[in-house]
Amino acid sequence: MSSAVDHPLVLSVDAKPYAFSFDPKHTALLVIDMQRDFLLAKGFGDIQGGNLEAVQASIAPTKKLLEACRGAGMTMVHTREGHKADLSDCPSSKLVRQSAAPNNAQPSLVIGDKGEMGRLLVRGEYGHDIVDELRPFPGEMVIDKPGKGTFWNTNILHMLKARAITHLIVSGVTTECCFATSIREANDRGFECCGIEEATSGYNDACFKKATLDMIHWSQGLFGFVANLQPLLDVLTPLSPPAHPAGSTPPQTPRAFDGDLRLLSLQKAYKDGLSPVSVVEAIYDKIEAYKSIDPAVWIYLEKKENALEAAKALLTKYLDRSALPSLFGIPFSVKDSIDIAGLATTTACPPLAHVPSVSAVVYDKVISEGALFIGKTNLDQLATGLTGCRSPYGIPHSVFHKDYISGGSSSGSAVSVGAQLVTFSLATDTAGSGRVPPGFNGVVGYKPTRGTLSFRGVTPACLSLDCVSLIALTVADARTLWQVLEDHDPLDPYSKPTIAFERHINSIGRQAKTFKFGVPPAEALLLCSLPARRMFNEAIRKLQDIGGVLTPTDWSPFEKAGRLLYDGTFVSERLASLPADFLERNRNALHPVIVELMDAVVARQSTAVQAYRDMQAKAIYTRQAGSVFSYSATGIDVLVVPTAPTHWKISEVLEDPIRKNSHLGEFTHFGNVLDLCAVAVPAGTYPVKELSGVEEDEGGLPFSITFLSGSRLDAEMLELARRFEQSVEGSKKIA
Ligand code: TIU
């Protein structure tokens, strides 16, 4: 796949103290607090005695700036200052300091008091919202901030990191207050900021504005840059798609579907007029044809008429192609352990099948963003296994070779994406189910930090270690899905807030290019096949080529945590996730390998004492792993491992199902035990004969590496994975 959506483009504008250079893909426009309360008569600013004429003069230039940045496809962030209705997030320093001044000549209204546009600076009130001229488009970020600065008590740092933003163009009101504070805060967090003179203004225009802007760029750019609007418009405007002249209609011939199912490519094609109906038609033809190659991908396929109807409904619902929801017309599959209201969830285990009345949170979310449901995919029974050979619905094979396994448990999900029947799949990952199958099918498998995507509505395999995973065609696609799905869910007991701690970013210079990575020691890699070892060494070289510094890493917490998963008591949680007596009552209806595995767990007669010892060991290893990814001289940014040590043939797994399975998890088992995030990324292919030793064997098999990082360091990890993916694409083009 060529990387059509990702080419670096560095723009440069005249600025103080020197030219400001930025790549629009890594730059966001920050529009600070252009709210009625600050800009219009009888608002908070007016009541405080602010110069309204001065601040209103910034609306028109800000609109021009907004349109140019939107046209260039940049990330847009609008902020609104304000408080909860009960003012519980408003400190006394904001509420009473000014009104308490002994010589206060201003009217005594404070935050929360009733003004003519509603309660002053209170969320949900008319005056709190952004002025009509600058209204955010659907999908643009709106940050509600309780402070003057944009970073205090908001998730903006996380959101910007998630989008790999390193540079900020800053506008809005007031120059002396929220604009300046936000630039100073952003500077501490590592962003390169450029304020736009005409697109900011203050209540003390003449005396403060110049001083505030000078303070930003003083001393060779103490806090950042300041530029004029026109030079910026000059470099951004050529990036806007051509506008249709007034009165004309868009091109009449419907755009044909070029077969590119990548999420970002489809988003662009839909903007340019492609119909989701054409996409549905094309993929059902492909799905039909693929049934003769592999009949074991789907457990339930949505009727084509239903999918077409859903596509047509999207067309009527969203008439404006410049304001589409983020997953408009994106086809996807769902692992059949994830609930969809009205459809059976089988978990590839007919005795456990049930028809839920409520869909999983993640399913509802992607549907509400316009995605198109295509079907439910096959999996290893009870989401237990890494092979794809443990389902009563058949054994899917790798999209690369009919004799080789697809991997499991998300077998059908990975094949549906690998064969390009859908753009993405909602799957799960407990011991590696969201990483191994994508690895065996040449696609991306991303397992966000546990608890950051809701697990509600998913049949558990091992509840305290389960998480939703995303299978996609590219890292950028996986990242987009993550941004749509990530949300704290108070009804999911394992949900955790997305913000762990603040870690600065590196926007420019050598630090922005380099990163530290660790790999397993040579003894651990001996488990790998010869081609896997050769390919892993090549991947290490590629990582070094893009600025990676191979750093000695303590492998022991990862190794020990991996063993804890199946050799310890945690595997008992798989039984705890099933109804009482389930095994006894359904023995004959279960897959024989699952029965063997569960019987072995029962036979261990694990005690509560052993379980507590394991929990304590888990806490120790998690702390040790955390220090491997720490923010320190010895810490690494990512651990890089082969996703799986080898490829098995289906026949090999059938002969020795349990041992072959556990071998596959050597580099995945520890991921959820240690609360890490992980993403498996394709790293090239090698000839089948290199593995089999049989000269006549034709075809190739995919190699994959997995990046892992600490809890809630997803954004940083994904950006490195994306850079690696880009280097693999680059080397393919040269080859
Ligand atoms: N008072 C004042 O100048 N400004 C604010 O309180 N907020 C912003 O600047 N947005």
From TrEMBL:
Domain of life, per lineage: Eukaryota
Domain spans labelled Amidase: 279-716
Protein name, entry field: Amidase signature enzyme
InterPro entries to which the protein is assigned, alphabetical: Amidase_dom, AS_sf, Isochorismatase-like_dom, Isochorismatase-like_hydrls, Isochorismatase-like_sf
Gene3D superfamilies: 1.20.58.1700, Amidase signature (AS) domain, Isochorismatase-like
A Pfam family reported for this protein in Swiss-Prot or TrEMBL: Isochorismatase
Similarity comment: Belongs to the isochorismatase family.
Cell cycle in keyword set: no
Keywords, alphabetical: Hydrolase
Domain Isochorismatase-like as annotated: residue spans: 27-216
Source lineage: Eukaryota, Fungi, Dikarya, Ascomycota, Pezizomycotina
PANTHER family, sorted: FAMILY HYDROLASE, PUTATIVE (AFU_ORTHOLOGUE AFUA_2G08700)-RELATED, PEROXYUREIDOACRYLATE/UREIDOACRYLATE AMIDOHYDROLASE-RELATED
GO molecular function: hydrolase activity
CDD domains linked: cysteine_hydrolases
